[in-house]
Amino acid sequence: MAQRGGEVAAKRTKLSSGDAGGVGEERLSALPDDLLVLILLRLDTAAAAVRTSAFSRRWSRVWALLPELRFDPAPDGRAIRGILDAPEAAALRRISVTTEGARPESAAAWLPAAARRLSGDLVYHNIAAPPMSYEEEEKEAGEAVQLPCFEKATTIELNMGFLGLALPPQGVFARLTGISLRCVRFRSPCELGDVVSWPRCPLLKKLEVHDSRGLDNLVFIDSKSLLLIKLKALRSLRKLILVTPHLQELSVIRIFLHLDEDPSEPVANISAPQLESLEWNEVYDPQHVHLGNLRQVQWLITNYFVVYGSPRSRIVNRHCLRLLQQFQALYSLVLTLVYKQDINDLQCLMGDIAMLPQIRFLHLTVLNQGHAFGASSFHLLRMCTDLRELSFGLHANGNMDSTCPSGCICDQPVSWKTEALVLNHLKRVEIFDMRGAEHEVTFVKQLFIWATVLKKLRIRFDYRVSESKAREFCRALAGSSRPETSVEFYMYDVSTSSTYLLAPEGHGTGF
């Protein structure tokens, strides 16, 4: 053991005594700087790269040439600041910091140093569970982190773990093209719209704000450069105003959570004449939500539609219907159908959908709770005779073996199985999370009848479906498809987190 310890000590001495010219003593030090930098980039963290400076005088300056620094997990904020403030350090194209349950003073310690050094991307993730109630949030809020102005940053991605964040009241983010803010508790005095608008962000293309607090009154954004805006779960926003002449994609999801179904005043006023893609999962009434000219929109995602419900459900559905009525033609429509668990005492509301825009691609997300979805899908498909592609995403909560109670009304009217429907443009169908239930077999068989020119059907089974169950489903469809239709079945392998093609059994499947 003593001999082995002596050998290790000798090797360390040899490594640490090398210089730039000591090729015989330390071969690594003889490598060019760019190769040494590549070696350091493969280390786990920036702190590990900095520790290599103990090897020799040559190594003491190599880490400072790194184009990016990663702190995962991060040391104390003051330690990060010390590394970023090193006088020999060069400009950085990327800084990535990951913390867990950090306090505001930790982030506040290193962010100003990062602003001075960064000429590229900033990524900060503070992993923390959100408080359970508003009172707990306020109690745990603490001091706000002052965000400095990153004059040379190109993208900023902050997940604050619900720490308070005060935006900089002055300064220009001259090179910033994208900003993503998640789990942020915004603090005054500066408003979000003031920072991301023209001219303080003259090159900003992409703005995302998710799961955040503090934007209670008004978000007003005036930008000549923004192409994409995604706003989700902002909790209590009262009004949104966008003046974005070049905006192409807008996503608004649950940001007016304080509002009743019929607000008393306008909640959105949006000017985006070049908008092509719109996701509006929110209240919608043309009197209170002004979306401007929608003639350029080709991709639409609507609010959900309750298939069986009470009179109150009909009020909720009205927001989806009103938005659909604004369009005569679309390239793509994403529509979500929601089934409640117990529907036998509820009214079928599908008849309220009297028309759909002319569309080429339809994606139905079906939260069916194990209920049959053939009748509701048929109701929609007979309004989509120009359809080229069809996609289903099935989400049936609960036990894999759960079925509807006897006499359930979900498959009514049963006439959908015999009524004529010709989808003579539909060439491609994809169905996700199939469970292999009998009502799913019935629906797929009807698809083969309706889609007279179907070229490809791809079915992906739910990850909980066994291979034997999947093969039983395949056998049930045997002989139903046309010879010119390619049918593929995919299974999910949990052990590898990947999908694989289910090979047919023998020659009896018909596919």
From TrEMBL:
Residues of the F-box/LRR-repeat protein 15/At3g58940/PEG3-like LRR domain: 149-280
Signal peptide coordinates: none
One Pfam match: F-box
Family annotation (InterPro entries): F-box-like_dom_sf, F-box_dom, FBL15-like, LRR_FXL15/At3g58940/PEG3-like
Name by which UniProt lists this protein: FBD domain-containing protein
Lineage of source species: Eukaryota, Viridiplantae, Streptophyta, Embryophyta, Tracheophyta
Region described as Disordered: spans on this chain: 1-23
Species whose genome carries this gene: Urochloa decumbens
Residue span(s) of domain F-box: 28-66
